[in-house]
Specification:
Chain A is α+β, with helices and mostly antiparallel strands and about 90 residues long. Chain A contains two helices and three strands; from the N terminus they run E-E-H-E-H. Chain A has one domain: Roll (Ubiquitin-like (UB roll)). A three-stranded antiparallel sheet of chain A has the order 2-1-3. In chain B, helix 2 packs antiparallel against helix 5. Classes of the chains: A alpha+beta (about 90), B mainly alpha (about 250).
């Protein structure tokens, strides 16, 4: 059990893409969390930007919520792009 | 008799290697595994610097010695590292304060070596100055947190600072080797290094609410000439044990 709080680490691999969750580190404060994250997750040129956020500051959905939060989407197929025809002029979709 | 440039190369290669060896002795004893990672990453950067310098020493010397020769086949008395970097890992505060006093020197040293008239040293300076800047960021962040932390961390940081302070004079010692290399445009002006070091140290100690100790009397020196303290032979013996027991071994 660590005496230091846990931080979630997000790494942006290159410009133009989103930060992606990479893992966690223990650290006494944000600056040290950033340094520990750098040492664990970006030592081999994996990233151009780092975010750290206290794990306790994240509000997560619980497993019990799964039915009410996610299942109603299943019968609404019109939300999926497969219901729409793509004009020939549109590329890179 | 070694030429001034060879002595200079070995002093800096030895400084990096001996500090790395001390840091690696401390691995698994940090407050948290994250800090073990941070210190071992710093040690690996330092080993990388010493490898470049030892390889260069071998080329310059022209006797067919490779980097391993300088690391593993020399006796403790042939190591020309300043006393500061061989000081023991008494507690986390000693490890951090030692690192900080060293990094505040290494940053201006490598930065200024990047414009050396010697192209190998200039290339190393450009690479190592970025590494040292990160080391300093890490060590100064921790000096501030220990100094301006709890009563116990403040007391331990103060003890470490007072114990290591007499060793800092040696970093700025000027002998005929430095004078000759500085005149030739190879090495930086030691008085400018000192001014940079003073600025960094004063700023960080002040933020850390740590009092800057008085100038040491007497200063602890001798390492740059191969005169080391009691624990140095054991430190080097341990580092060289495998290479000496199995000559020519690869790993």
């Amino acid at each position: 059990m660590s005496a230091w709080p846990l931080w979630e680490v997000f790494v942006r691999a290159r410009r133009g893409v989103s930060h992606v969750h990479a893992g966690t580190v223990h650290a006494p404060d944000a600056e040290i969390a950033l340094q520990n994250a750098r040492d664990l997750f970006t030592r081999r040129s994996e990233g151009v930007s780092l975010w750290v956020v206290r794990s306790s500051d994240i509000t997560a959905s619980s497993g019990d919520d799964r039915a009410s939060l996610f299942e109603p989407a299943e019968d609404k197929t019109f939300r999926h792009p497969s219901d729409f025809e793509l004009p020939d002029a549109v590329s890179h979709m | 008799m070694q030429t001034p440039l060879l002595t200079f190369i070995l002093r800096h290669g030895d400084r990096s290697l001996v500090l790395a060896q001390r840091l690696l002795e401390y691995i698994t004893r940090s407050p948290e595994i994250e800090e073990d990672m941070a210190l071992s990453n710093i040690a690996l950067d330092l080993i990388g610097q010493s490898r470049i310098l030892y390889t260069y020493a071998g080329e310059f010397e022209g006797l067919g010695h490779d980097e391993d020769h300088f690391a593993f086949q020399r006796d403790p008395g042939q190591f020309l590292s300043p006393i500061l970097v061989e000081r023991p890992n008494t507690d986390f505060a000693h490890v951090i304060v030692r690192q900080f006093l060293h990094d505040a020197y290494a940053v201006p040293l490598w930065t200024r070596l990047a414009v050396s008239s010697d192209t190998t040293l200039a290339g190393l300076g450009a690479k190592a100055s970025k590494e040292a800047a990160y080391h300093l960021r890490h060590s100064s962040a921790w000096v501030i947190r220990l100094g301006d932390g709890t009563e116990e961390s403040h007391d331990r940081a103060t003890s470490a600072l007072e114990a290591l302070w007499p060793c800092t004079e040696e970093l700025f010692e000027i002998d005929e080797i430095d004078a000759e290399l500085f005149t030739a445009g190879v090495s930086p002006d030691p008085t400018e290094l000192r001014a940079d070091w003073d600025r960094t140290v004063n700023e960080v100690l002040s933020t850390a609410t740590l009092a800057r100790p008085a100038p040491p009397a007497p200063a602890v020196t001798g390492g740059l000439s191969g005169l080391h303290e009691d624990d140095f032979d054991r430190l080097i013996d341990e580092m060289q044990e495998l290479a000496r027991a199995h000559p020519g071994v690869n790993w």
